[in-house]
DNA sequence: TTTGACAGTTCTATTTTAGAACTATAGCCT
DNA sequence: AGGCTATAGTTCTAAAATAGAACTGTCAAA
């Protein structure tokens, strides 16, 4: 597998893995969703090495997930803010959190609870069909080759 | 970070990353959802090294994501089948596929199209609130410490 | 002038992954 | 019987990624 061109594979999962498919990137993004924005803050809350953090932030900026925004002119300092593309990763992270809550829990109970401001209740994220609104299950989904796959293969 | 105990962290995202947080594991699971079950089939469709495939399958079995089921007695041969815990990873994979479709697409169009058998239509997966059914956005969610976090910290 | 905060970069050691070759069991063909 | 093929791995060495610590540069405040 050539990881350097994974983002051009004719597979949307591969392309997503090219961006978030390593152990640190999703943890960095979790911090972003918890309003962490600065290098030192990421580093101390994650205990990631400074080298790796620097690499990952650059990569996320390159892919348009984060924007590097100056917050101080002298000395020049930057913070990292989620773009819309980055905010759209939210369902991925919530799906992972929910799976962890369901299947990897221990006797201590859930680490975090999520409140939906619109309805005021504690909730779980649920994945539904955009057309009929029903809850999705793997066995009810049929996969077809789309135009991108036919072009890539044929 | 001690990756060997990541599945015991007081964070459901970390615990999920402990299982699926590397580049190959999610690609292997994609094949599982496409009904691939056997060692040779995984290896040839993914071009993963046999060594790594063997490691990853063992890990997925250890975590209860796959079951190793004999399909031939002499010689002893096994295939790998998703458990319910594994099937429940579907929303994660669909969320990643959807994000890739939306943000990493190219001029060739989508590689795969998904049909919901229940309603017969091509669909996108959408994440909603379990309580009110509205579409979820990061900014409408407020996070509280749950019992697992308080026990871990306090 | 010295100290400290912040945002990195650079270096070496360890761990992980890639790539290829090898092992083992058994059916089938001649 | 002897050799070929299929399947499911294991073992080996080289290359790449990550960990961990120290170092750099800028500026403000004491």
UniProtKB/TrEMBL annotation, chains A, B:
Q: Does the keyword Transcription regulation apply?
A: yes
Residue ranges constituting the HTH hxlR-type domain according to the UniProt record: 11-108
Q: In which domain of life is the source organism classified?
A: Bacteria
| InterPro entries noted in UniProt | HTH_HxlR (IPR002577), WH-like_DNA-bd_sf (IPR036388), WH_DNA-bd_sf (IPR036390)
Q: Which Gene3D superfamilies match?
A: Winged helix-like DNA-binding domain superfamily/Winged helix DNA-binding domain (1.10.10.10)
What are the GO MF terms of this UniProt record?
DNA binding
Which PROSITE patterns does the annotation name?
HTH_HXLR
Q: Does the keyword Transcription regulation apply?
A: yes
Keywords per UniProt: DNA-binding, Transcription, Transcription regulation
**Pfam families cross-referenced by the UniProt entry:** HxlR
| Region forming the signal peptide | none
Q: What is this protein called?
A: HxlR family transcriptional regulator
Upper lineage is: Bacteria, Pseudomonadati, Pseudomonadota, Alphaproteobacteria, Hyphomicrobiales
